[in-house]
Amino acid sequence: MLNWRHIRKPQAAEQVSPAVQHLSDSTGSSHIIEVVGVNKSFGDVHVLKDITFYIRNNEFITLLGPSGCGKSTTLRILAGFERPDSGDVFFEGRSLLDIPPYQRQLNTVFQRYALFPHLNVYDNIAFGLNIKKMAKEEIRTRIGQALKTVDLEGYADRWVEQLSGGQMQRVAIARAIVNKPQVLLLDEPLGALDLKMRKEMQIELKEMQRSLGITFVYVTHDQEEALTMSDTIIVMKEGLIQQIGTPTDIYNEPRNAFVADFIGESNIIPGQMTEDFVVSFAQRSFDCIDRRMPEDEVDVVIRPEDIVLTGPNDRTINGRVVSVVFKGVHYEMLVEAGPFTWMIQSTDFFPTDASVGLTFDPEDIHIMAKSTYSPDRQSAQPETESEPDDRNGGDSW
Ligand code: ADP
Ligand code: MG
Fold first, then answer.
1. Best label site of 73, 210, 244, 314, fewest CB within 10 Å?
2. pTM to 2 decimals?
C-alpha cells in the first residue's frame, strides 16, 4: 500500500461560500464545473442523491466508488447524455442543462474504445472533425499533435484490428483530445487493459493531463488508481458523496468507516473518547491527536502498515498470529487479540502462533464519527442525505 503520509499532511477544511456566486475558492482556483443538488432516478431507483461538488480548472478529479454507485451517471450528466431530475450543472458559471452534448466543451473517453473497425487510425481520429467540416490541413495538424500526445506517432495508417488494447485506448484518447476540449471525461478508460499496461497508462494519462493543461474528470472503482493519479478524489457510495479531498486527505483522514475500508486496508475498531487527545479501545487508553467529538462512541482506524509488532508486554495490545501471507514487499499477518482480529503489514516476520504485541504512534490513530457504515452498525438503515463536505458545500448552499 502506498504511504501518503510522507507526501503531504492534510490541509484544514476549506471554507467554501456558495460557489455559483463567485467561481473560485480559498485556493484562488476557478471552478470550471459546478454540480449543484443533482438528483437522478431510473424508475424507482434513486441513483444520485443530492450530489453537489465543484471541479477546479485544470485539475485531475476522480469519481471513485464501487460498481453501481452512480459514477457513470454523474459523468453522463456532465456530458449531456442524461438530464438530472433536479439540480443544475454549471460550466464557467452558466447552466449546461439546455446545451446539447456536441456543443459542450467536454469530450468523453469510454471503457470500450468504440473505434470504427473499418477505418484506420487517422480516419478514426478525423471522424468528428470531418463531420464538423474542418479544413483538411487543420485536421492533419491536429491529428499529428494528438498522435504525438498519446505516443502513437507513425501509427496513422494502421488498421484498428492491428492494434493492442492499450494502443486502441490511446487512439480513443487521441480522438477525444483532437477536439481540444476544455474538459476530458474518462469513464474507466483503463478497465479493459491488463495490470501492467494499466499502470503504464496511469502515469501517461497523468502526464498528458499536465501537458495538455486541461481538466480531467476520471471515473474508476480502483482505489489505487485514484490515489495514484488524482489531485482530488470524490468517494461515492449508493448515489451519495461520502468524502471529497486530496488523496492524502482521503487516505489519512477518512470521514467514515466506508471510506476507510474502501481506500486501502483498515483496522476499524469501536472506541470511546471522553476527553480530548485520549481514546479508549481494546480495553486500553491511548494518546491520540484528535479532539473529542460530539458523541463519545467513535470508530478508530489504524492502517495495517502503521502497526509495529514486538514481543508482548504490558504496554502493548497482545495477541496471537493466526495467519501470515508474504505479499512481495511485506508480510500480511492476522493477529487475534480478544474479540478483534488485526491486520498488520510489516517487513518483519512473525510465524503463525507467535505471541506478539501491537504498538502504533498517536498520529497513526485516526478517529471517525460513527456512521451507518461503522462495522458495529452495519444493519442500520442507509443514510438518505449526503454529509456536508468542504467540497460539496455543506450548509453554505
Ligand atoms: P457506476 O458507474 O458507479 O457503476 P452507474 O452510474 O452506471 O454506476 O449506475 C448507477 C445505478 O443506476 C445502477 O444501479 C444502474 O443499474 C442504474 N442505471 C444506470 N443507468 C441506467 C439506465 N439508463 N436505466 C436504468 N438504470 C440505470
Ligand atoms: Mg460505470
1. 314
2. 0.84
Domain 267-377 has CATH 1.10.3660.10: no
> Which residue, judged by its Cα, is nearest atom 11 of ligand 1?
68
* Ligand 1 pocket member 81 (CB < 6 A): no
Let me know if domain 4-249 sits in CATH 3.40.50.300.
yes
Answer whether 42 contacts ligand 1 (Cβ < 6 A).
yes
258 exposure class (CB count in 10 Å sphere: 0-12, 13-18, 19+): buried
**Ligand 1 atom closest to the CA of 74, numbered from 1:** 6
CA 67 to ligand 1 centroid distance, Å: 9
Atom of ligand 1 nearest to the CA of 187: 2
What is the tens place of the pLDDT at every residue in 331-385? 999 999 999 999 999 998 999 999 999 999 999 999 999 998 998 887 544 444 4
Cell of 117: 473497425
How far apart CA 276 and CA 272 sit, in angstroms, is: 11
Domain boundaries, the chain: 4-249, 267-377
φ and ψ at residue 196, rounded to 5 degrees: -65, -45
Give 31-62 pLDDT, tens digit per residue: 999 999 999 999 999 999 999 999 999 999 99
SS3 386: coil
CA 34–ligand 2 middle distance (angstroms): 20
